[in-house]
TrEMBL record:
It comes from the Bacteria. The keyword Lipid biosynthesis applies. GO terms for cellular component: membrane. InterPro entries: Acetyltransf_C, Acetyltransf_C_sf, Lipid_A_LpxA, Trimer_LpxA-like_sf. One of its GO terms (biological process) is lipid A biosynthetic process. Its EC number is 2.3.1.129. This is UDP-N-acetylglucosamine acyltransferase.
Length: 273
């Protein structure tokens, strides 16, 4: 059974899982669904159609499922879905989606969201991510699995970040970052591959050599980027990471209209399709 502090306000209709504790002065709205064995420490606000997965811990003054910060939002019953095993620290904010953006903001499992980080409306965030203090996503961003985002880093809306990316602190990200990329800077540029993260994910030395060679050929060889991309396409079978990077680039192009240009090395400019 759940344990609810007498000072907390849990509205009729809210679903609270077994073993969940709701601490002092928390507010849980009627449309919330909170899984088993969660812990809302104190002063937590859960609003709207919000689902929290099992085993998630939420620290004081976090506010989840509040309306999207969008002038086009007219009160529609959109959603926020947070996965299992997440750690959500003090003053984190996550907004629910908008109808025009698909209606749902989605956060995966086992995420660690440090103090003051923000997930904007209609964002899709993968599993096993880490957001350092005040990392901020504009609306409609996509963040891949195992990505680390440094403190005080901000993302322009509609930005995509591939899996296993590392973004340095105090960066401004306004372009799509390829899977396994390492990016940083006031206007973030691609500074290499996230070798440390790749090693942690059990990439062998041989795989690292292959992927590094591909990266150098794609981003640092001669010619226009479009020509270099076609030149490296035959390497897609050499390693799954290469296939993933090429697929990520192709997906951005296929989206047309609102997709971002590709984050490039500082000496390579940006790619605008």
């Amino acid at each position: 059974m759940s344990n609810i502090d007498p000072s907390a306000r849990v509205e009729d209709g809210a679903v609270i899982g077994d073993g969940t504790s709701i601490g002092p002065f928390c507010i849980v709205g009627r449309d919330a669904v909170i899984g088993a064995n969660c812990r809302l420490i104190s002063h937590v606000n859960i609003d709207g159609h919000t689902t929290i997965g099992d085993g998630t811990t939420i620290s004081p003054f976090a506010s989840l499922g509040t309306p999207p910060q969008s002038t086009g939002y007219k009160g529609e019953p959109t959603r926020l879905e947070v996965g299992s095993g997440c750690t959500i620290r003090e003053s984190v904010t996550m907004n629910r989606g908008t109808v025009s953006g698909g209606g749902v903001t989605r956060v995966g499992d086992r995420g660690f969201f440090m103090t003051g980080s923000h997930i904007g409306h209609d964002c899709h965030v993968g599993n096993d991510v880490i957001f350092a203090n005040t990392a901020t996503l504009g609306g409609h961003c996509e963040i891949g699995d195992f990505t680390f985002i440094g403190g005080m880093t901000v993302f322009q809306q509609f930005t995509r970040v591939g899996a296993q990316v590392m973004i340095g602190g105090a960066s401004g990200v306004r372009d799509d970052v390829i899977p396994y990329g390492l990016a940083n800077g006031i206007y973030a540029h691609l500074s290499g591959l996230n070798i440390v993260g790749m090693r942690r994910r059990k990439f062998t030395k041989q795989r690292l050599v292959v992927v590094r060679s591909f990266f150098d050929e794609l981003f640092h060889s001669e010619g226009l980027f479009a020509d270099r991309l076609e030149r490296v396409r035959p390497r897609v079978g050499e390693d799954p990471a290469i296939a993933e990077i090429i697929a990520f680039i192709d997906e951005g192009k296929a989206r047309g209209g609102r997709h971002r240009s590709l984050c490039m090395p500082a000496d390579g400019g940006s790619v605008v399709d």
